[in-house]
Amino acid sequence: AAVSPLSCCQQHSQEVCESCVVKTTLTAENAVEANKLSNNYKFGFKKWKSHVTARPREDRSEIVKELYSDLNVIRGSGGSTGTCGNVLYLLLFGWWLSLLYVLVAAVVFVTVVGAPYGEADARVPAGRLCWDLAGYFLWPFGKAIQKVPKSRRVLGACEAGAGESSALLGGPVPRRWRPWCWADTGHWQRAGAMAGLCLGYPALALAHGLVCVAAWLLVFLIPVAKLSARTAARVLLLPPEQVLVRRLRMTEVPLEGEVILCCYRAVNPYYYKYAVDGINVFAVNLLPLVLVTLVLGYVDSHNRLTSSPIKFTLALLSIMPLSYYIGMAIASISAQSNFAVGAVVNATFGSITELTFYITALIKGSREGNRCYAEIVKSALTGTLVGCVLFVPGLCMVIGGIRHQEQRFNSRSAGVSSALLFLSVGGVFAPTLFSKVYGKLVCGECHNVTQNPLGHYLCHNCHFDLMENNGTLYYSHVQPLVYTVSLLLPAAYLIGLFFTLKTHSHIYDIHISDCHMPGHHHSAVVHWSRWRALVILLLSTLCMSACADLATEHISPILTNSTISQYFIGVTVLAMVPELPEIVNGIQFALQNNLSLSIEIGNCIAVQVCMLQIPILVLFTIFYPTNFTLVFSDLHVYASMFSVVLMNYIFMDGKCDYFQGTVLVMVYFILLAVYFFAPSPSGC
């Protein structure tokens, strides 16, 4: 967040104060976060929204504090419990959990486990706890489960029964059921109690485990997952005489003893912010999908269990969490390293997600002699370029514009990216334009429309042949041009890095400081150390390679049997699915009125596609010959050039609103419609 430099002026010299005035100052909790914030504004570095260090709990908002609570705090006023989320819990879990506890209580009552023991006037069945818990889990909201201290067992039960009631039946608890009158003997050393544990605990623990997994996967029901996990781990393992289930009152003073469970809401819409060791909960939930994909893909190689389209879908979905882990690892390493190490890591692994898929697709196409894979790669490259130029910034403008009437961004830094985009698009499509000028037009089938030999002809399946005269035009002219462009584009990328990071770094107007944050100098506790981040980065890259291999292995039936144009499949699914984590980052920046980073996310990806990914693919074809040539269809050329021109026109004045974002998104959808109705490329 931008802040005023007034406090800096109060504590530093006039020279430093002037620097604060002309630069935007960003807050940072510690040096590691300051380095990460600085990297976000560096050209060529992956933009990362999430924190790479653990934030002190006392500095978080009350909403976030509630997300990480252990459901063991009794509030004076918990509000109404009759919410839609609580009713949803009742319909999904409450009724059958309660029924299960009733059945276990009935079994316990009629077995030796429920037989009376202890003193003659304290014949209490052990199933009483299950009976109370049945009522609790039917509707746990506004109730509490407490662990009763040993010194209060007899005292609390032998009093007149102030407020104690049966969870299911209501009314005062019968004297013979009051658990605190039990003899103070070792409960778990009784054979009957051990038999009760073996009889009821497995079924109840299994049920709570299922509820915990289901609620956790639904994300917004994570409070229910915590409720079930704590019950299986704590409540069911306590001696029954130490467990008290009670309904809370608005003005009630908590009884002496530890509060184990106290829940007021089953659903919390803010749990999309929840993180486990710095990893967003959605990325955590999608990680098992990667394991399922790898097991099904390599164990069921003959498609006995699942079909190829299902495996392709799973492999494609698995790329999303792996992209998140790669991004998190890159941001963690860069934030804890110097500039040189961060630049190398970003340049090496920044495009690894896309390159892994492209290279595996080209290898498979070369082995099968199928040109369709090369066309799919070209479509995916164009789709990434068009999507990151139009859809990503447009969507961020629309969502950010809903909260902020007008958003401003750094037009100078955006101008640098725009200039590099013009350069890169011109360089990438130069061989295509060259082939259109000097190539020979060849058509597959022609018909004379006028029945006159000198009349008009209608031709189909026309293309420019570069292999005439044994490929003289291609090998003598087009291929050297491709290699020249592939060398010039990375050189231009390096010049852009030197310009924006060294000689003209002031155009970003960023100053990281904590001089305005008195009392907030916390030591940095990183989520992932450098070595841990490096290991996760390598493992994620390895899994990404495996998933990309499975995706290309099982995409063939989709390409051959689908009625949708292969162009459309390439520019949508294969291009944008790996970029979903980046899109989420851009949206989060836009919501915080930081549209500069949202725009830079799309521009940075588009520039890397043209200046790094395509040259790497060309370099790869030198050592491993494939069907990939840097000659694109006319549709790709027109769509890419029009997108870049429109993006530069929108970003000209350095401010935008939701209407301009809507224009970019609508143009993107129009281009998708063109690709949808376009005939499939030749060779597919």
UniProtKB/TrEMBL annotation:
Q: Does the keyword Cell membrane apply?
A: no
Q: Where is it chiefly localized?
A: membrane
Its annotated compartments are: Endomembrane system
Q: How does it sit in the membrane?
A: Multi-pass membrane protein
A single GO molecular function, which one?
calcium:proton antiporter activity
User: Which segments cross the bilayer?
Assistant: 87-115, 203-224, 279-298, 310-327, 339-360, 380-402, 414-434, 481-501, 533-552, 564-584, 605-624, 630-651, 658-678
Report the GO terms under cellular component: endomembrane system; vacuolar membrane
Q: Where is the Sodium/calcium exchanger membrane region domain?
A: 311-429, 533-675
Q: Which InterPro entries match?
A: CaH_exchang, NaCa_Exmemb, NCX_ion-bd_dom_sf, YccF
Stored Pfam families: Na_Ca_ex (PF01699), YccF (PF03733)
Recite the UniProt keywords alphabetically.
Antiport, Calcium, Calcium transport, Ion transport, Membrane, Phosphoprotein, Transmembrane, Transmembrane helix, Transport
Query: One of this protein's GO BP terms?
Result: intracellular calcium ion homeostasis
Domain Inner membrane component per the UniProt entry, residue ranges: 84-143
Q: Which domain of life is it from?
A: Eukaryota
Q: What is this protein called?
A: VNX1 protein
Task: Provide the species name.
Answer: Ciccaba nigrolineata
